[in-house]
Amino acid sequence: MSTLQQVAFRAGCSVATASRVLNRNGPVSDEMVRRVRRAAAELGYRGGGRTGNGRPAIGVLIPSVTNPVFAASLSSIQNRAFHAGHSVLIAQSNYDPAQEPDAVASLLHQQPTGLILTVCDPERSMALSSALPPTVLLGNLPTSRFTAAVATDNFAAGRDLTNHLLCKGHRRILFISGHFAASDRAKLRYLGYIRAMEAAGQRPLDTLEISFVSSLEQLDLSDVVARSNPTAIIASNDLLALGVMGALRRQGLSIPRDISVAGFDGISLGLLTEVSLTTVEIPDGTMGAAAASLLLDMAENAAPPRHLTVPYRLRVGGSVRDLAVQS
Questions:
Q1: With contact defined as beta carbons under 8 Å apart, do 93 and 126 qualify?
Q2: Has the keyword Ion transport been applied to this entry (predicted)?
Q3: Which single residue of 16, 26, 144, 149 could bond 137 by disulfide (Cβ 3.0 to 4.6 Å)?
Q4: pLDDT-wise least confident of 13-22, 272-281, 288-297
Q5: Span 259-275, mean pLDDT?
Q6: Higher confidence at residue 144 or residue 44?
Q7: How much is the pTM?
């Protein structure tokens, strides 16, 4: 079994410097970080934290373990990590920026090989303000400090979905979202909606923000529907879109005859409703696997961080009515 002394010798540095790099507890140049990590990988040195099964671990932070989107990502991360000899440590923030620092600290306490993080807003997250091991942002855009990220173009997805509704003759389109402070993905989708509406010469309706973790079975849209009189509603994710569909039906409204509904993510539940949900499919499983592969390459092979953009696809369902077609 290799030792820290052997890693330091191969990297051409002192044992103290090698220790600082591998334990992330002191200032070291980027070049030295790469040399020490490469030496550790070549020698098979695994001096970091291990889980109870003796494997090194990857730390993963997600907003919610109950959202199928993140469940799909986690499954792919675990599969990729398992084949690389790693376990996965999981923490959740409950879509609360204030919970992120403690969640990340709990992961760091177990000295993971690296981190895969989905934060509410990478530009404002306090969890990203301290020194971290190799880190990949999942679903978030990269920042100046954390340039490794795997995401889709949520702005373009919001624009394209809105254009789809506009092409179907809809002009009064309401955007319903979780709180934008809890998800930069939702905010980017909303900005894409704004861009498409303005480009079409249409006035965007006032958006409705609700909690991502609220009970959707109790969602009441009667006031906003009466006030805005939309012909279509875009929800910032599919779970919310399904909640919107339930709320509209409780009002006695028919989908899509009275109001059309569309969402984002492409979760399988959207195919099991009375009318299938029109949505933007985002390959969350593919993104999770890509994030895990990128992280392991950075941590074990000193590979440079990269920003990977994963394509999305519009999935047309029965939840959107074509107003240009006379009934």
A1: no
A2: no
A3: 149
A4: 13-22
A5: 90
A6: 144
A7: 0.84
Type of residue found at 39: A
Residues 6+ apart with CB under 8 A from 249: 255
Whole-number Å distance between alpha carbons of 129 and 124: 9
229 dihedral zone (left: phi>0; alpha: psi -120 to 50; beta): left
Distance CA 1, CA 225 (A): 66
DSSP strand E in the chain: where?
Answer: 57-62, 87-92, 114-117, 135-138, 149-151, 173-178, 208-210, 232-235, 260-265, 278-281, 307-309, 313-315
Angle between helix 30-43 and helix 4-11 axes, rounded to 10 deg:
130
Residue 304 carries which side chain, given as an amino acid letter? P
CATH architecture of 154-282: 3-Layer(aba) Sandwich (3.40)
The Cα diameter of the chain in Å comes to 78
Calpha distance 139→151 (Å, rounded)? 4
CATH number, domain 50-152+285-311, options 3.40.50.2300, 3.10.350.10, 3.30.70.100, 3.20.190.10: 3.40.50.2300
How confident is the model over 56-91, as pLDDT tens digits?
Answer: 889 999 999 888 899 999 999 999 999 988 899 999
Q: Same fold for the domain at 1-47 and the one at 50-152+285-311? A: no
Q: How many CB atoms lie within 10 A of CB 167?
A: 11
Tokens 């979780």 found at: 178
Task: Tell me if 2 sits within 8 A of 44, measured CB to CB.
Answer: yes
Helix (H, G, I), strand (E, B) or coil at 4: helix
